[in-house]
Write a structure and sequence with these properties.
10 helices; two-stranded antiparallel ribbon; mainly alpha
Length: 220
């Protein structure tokens, strides 16, 4: 964020580069942000609730002060959402769109986003491989979310933060315990929901919705 104004002035002679990325302080962008937060949080809760109803996990009493977990999770998720969306759906996507088609930019940014989550020791990378399809879908989804709001970043930041926030509350608060009734390939390897079939299913639904929104705007 500190380097972006310099980048805009020196490279593109454009002093308001953050605004061109979609980071604008408008009421609509704020509404988009809260919509995204609600969607991301609700998606998490729905996914875990469904697994509970199916008998794949049991909800536990929180082991920590739950309001503190919720607040810490919100602040962390909002910071992560802002930083990653500014980099990947802001700077990287715009740089790609300057030289390539929208389709190439979409897929390239999503692939780079997914791959950079694997900059870890080899053993961890191999164990995380089941998460790659969902991370790729998430990268695509967040671009479609931006395009569906005429280039604003609010919805993308909100969705990203909402997904992280919901998982933070469940994971750090230790609110669920898996029953072992089904394979971790369904519920998520190492307890990570995006590394399993259920996470991929819900991510696919979200991706379909955001793609449809983006296509409707393009045709209007």
């Amino acid at each position: 964020m500190l380097l972006t104004p310099w980048w805009g002035k020196r490279v593109y002679h454009q002093p308001q580069l953050l605004q061109s990325y979609g980071l604008v302080g408008t009421q609509q962008n704020g509404i988009d942000l809260f919509k995204g937060l609600a969607i991301g949080l609700l998606m998490n809760l729905t996914m875990f609730t469904l697994q509970g109803l199916l008998g794949w996990l049991e909800f536990q009493k929180p082991s920590l002060v739950i309001w503190r977990v919720i607040l810490e999770g919100f602040l962390s998720a909002l910071g992560i959402g802002l930083a990653e969306e500014l980099v990947f759906r802001g700077w990287l996507l715009e740089e790609l769109q300057r030289d390539y088609s929208l389709r190439v930019s979409l897929w390239t940014s999503a692939i780079i986003y997914a791959l950079l989550h694997f900059t870890k020791p080899l053993s961890v990378m191999i164990r995380m491989l089941p998460a790659f399809p969902a991370l790729l879908l998430l990268g695509l989804t967040l671009v479609w979310a931006k395009w569906s709001t005429r280039g604003r970043l609010g919805l993308s930041i909100g969705l990203h933060a909402g997904l992280v926030w919901g998982y933070y509350i469940i994971n750090i608060g230790q609110l669920v315990e898996y029953s072992g009734e089904v394979s971790p390939w369904i519920t998520g390897v190492d307890g990570n929901p995006i590394a399993g079939g259920m996470g991929l299913l819900f991510m696919g639904i979200l991706a379909f919705w955001m793609r449809k929104r983006a296509n409707l705007l393009r045709k209007s």
